[in-house]
Amino acid sequence: MSATKKLFVKTYGCQMNVYDSQRMQDVLAPLGYQSVDEAEGADMVILNTCHIREKAAEKVFSDLGRIRKHKKAKEENGTDKMIVAVAGCVAQAEGAELMRREPIVDMVFGPQTYHRLPEMVARANRAIGNDRIIDTDFPVEEKFDHLPAQVSQQGYSAFIAIQEGCDKFCTFCVVPYTRGAEYSRPGMDIVNETRQIVAQGTREVTLLGQNVNAYHGAGPDGDEWTLGRLLRELSEIDGLERIRYITSHPRDVDDDLIFAHRDLPKVMPFLHLPVQSGSDRVLQAMNRKHDRQTYFDIVKRLREAQPDLALSSDFIVGFPGESEKDFEDTLDLVRQVGFIQTFSFKYSPRPGTPASAMELQVPEEVKAERLARLQDLLAEQQLAFNQNCVGREMDVLLDRTGKFEGQLVGRSPYMQPVHVNGLTEADLGRIVRLKITAAKPFSLAGELVEEGGSERNVA
Ligand code: 5AD
Ligand code: SF4
């Protein structure tokens, strides 16, 4: 048995990184590494980084500055060293540069290599002098094949990576470079992993992929499963109550997926379908491979199939060449579609992407002004949707305790946090029917609709 060692993992960026961080902890557990909440005194620190926008990447360097002090302190007063590792997309994109800029970094490894962590850790522990480790290959299939079959216990709501990488090459995006080509896990691997975590108490799964609806995994009979087919298979699992998936590309919304929303009550009526821009000119320059009318058509078909469906999206303002008219097209699309939750960003030029070399970069102050206008409109839509929920009954999966005694918080089908009073921790993990009594910009409050009609306290 190895002695216990302290592992501190910090995660930046998307849900895929949150999932990867969890799996890194699973891989390192047999070596005696147990997770702790702070870098100070840790035997190993992993920064699982994000490269999607400039700010995210810069954060890593400022955090490394802080970690330098902890590493020094540990070396001065202890015997064991602190291994500092940078993982994820910054590692993939800038591994060598990172090593050069930050001498304290012992190990750099990309998103596709963490199944090889035990070996890397052993080498880092033995390393003398300048022997540092860098592993930024792309052996995707190998990774999924070599991760421990036994996943660690997850919460009532869990994530499962089903697809990774992207072949779309939107001109602003680093993902095809940092995560590599599209790869889909075999269907039955996902079904089995889901069965396993459902047996441990999970009630909701969110299927993860950079381009999740491009999923085309091998089925058991040599056929190929689409995401729609996978959703059907997962729907059959007893004890699993809710299924979500993120992030989708409009181009890959096919009939199978639309029918899944129509036919499968476990598939939540909420879809994150990034459109990025409402201008045909900009969509084309972004290489999104569809125009605004196509987006309207897809949304229409989805809503016909599932009238309760609500949408969220990502937006980029200030893409190179975006005119005021282009931006107004985006506002117009937002008004026509109506979104209930969104992420919106100023365009951030990423090294090595085609858009970063385009002429007509939009000045920072114009980006800021457009972002503020867009976010005002989106916030208005979000609040209106939340207010419209008041008086409705919703099924809420209770998954954490609230700030106050007796208060629990759960998620509505639309991912809104819902607060409810008068319950106990024994109710965690239940899906309860709540009548919504109040709405805020980012959350709701509800009261229990008891069988028999009597109601408990309200948040
Ligand atoms: N600049 C700004 N936003 C970006 N995104 C991706 N790349 C960039 C970039 N270079 C946004 C997109 C994407 C989300 C995950 O991040 O909106 O959907
Ligand atoms: Fe990036 Fe476009 Fe792929 Fe999404 S679809 S990950 S935005 S390249």
Automatic annotation (TrEMBL):
Its main location: cytoplasm. Its cofactor is [4Fe-4S] cluster. [4Fe-4S] cluster 1 binds at C14, C50, C89. [4Fe-4S] cluster 2 binds at C166, C170, C173. It is found in: Cytoplasm. GO terms for molecular function: 4 iron, 4 sulfur cluster binding; metal ion binding; tRNA-2-methylthio-N(6)-dimethylallyladenosine(37) synthase activity. Binds 2 [4Fe-4S] clusters. One cluster is coordinated with 3 cysteines and an exchangeable S-adenosyl-L-methionine. SMART domains: Elp3. Keywords: 4Fe-4S, Cytoplasm, Iron, Iron-sulfur, Metal-binding, S-adenosyl-L-methionine, Transferase, tRNA processing. It catalyses: N(6)-dimethylallyladenosine(37) in tRNA + (sulfur carrier)-SH + AH2 + 2 S-adenosyl-L-methionine = 2-methylsulfanyl-N(6)-dimethylallyladenosine(37) in tRNA + (sulfur carrier)-H + 5'-deoxyadenosine + L-methionine + A + S-adenosyl-L-homocysteine + 2 H(+); 2-thio-N(6)-dimethylallyladenosine(37) in tRNA + S-adenosyl-L-methionine = 2-methylsulfanyl-N(6)-dimethylallyladenosine(37) in tRNA + S-adenosyl-L-homocysteine + H(+); N(6)-dimethylallyladenosine(37) in tRNA + (sulfur carrier)-SH + AH2 + S-adenosyl-L-methionine = 2-thio-N(6)-dimethylallyladenosine(37) in tRNA + (sulfur carrier)-H + 5'-deoxyadenosine + L-methionine + A + H(+). Residues 5-126 form the MTTase N-terminal domain. GO terms for cellular component: cytosol. Gene3D superfamilies: Methylthiotransferase, N-terminal domain, tm_1862 like domain. The keyword Transferase applies. Residues 152-384 form the Radical SAM core domain. The keyword Membrane does not apply. Residues 387-450 form the TRAM domain. It is an enzyme of class 2 (transferase). Pfam families: Radical_SAM, TRAM, UPF0004. Its EC number is 2.8.4.3. Catalyzes the methylthiolation of N6-(dimethylallyl)adenosine (i(6)A), leading to the formation of 2-methylthio-N6-(dimethylallyl)adenosine (ms(2)i(6)A) at position 37 in tRNAs that read codons beginning with uridine. Monomer. Belongs to the methylthiotransferase family. MiaB subfamily. NCBIfam families: miaB-methiolase (TIGR01574), MiaB/RimO family radical SAM methylthiotransferase (TIGR00089). This is tRNA-2-methylthio-N(6)-dimethylallyladenosine synthase. It comes from Thalassospira profundimaris. The lineage of its organism: Bacteria, Pseudomonadati, Pseudomonadota, Alphaproteobacteria, Rhodospirillales. The gene is miaB.
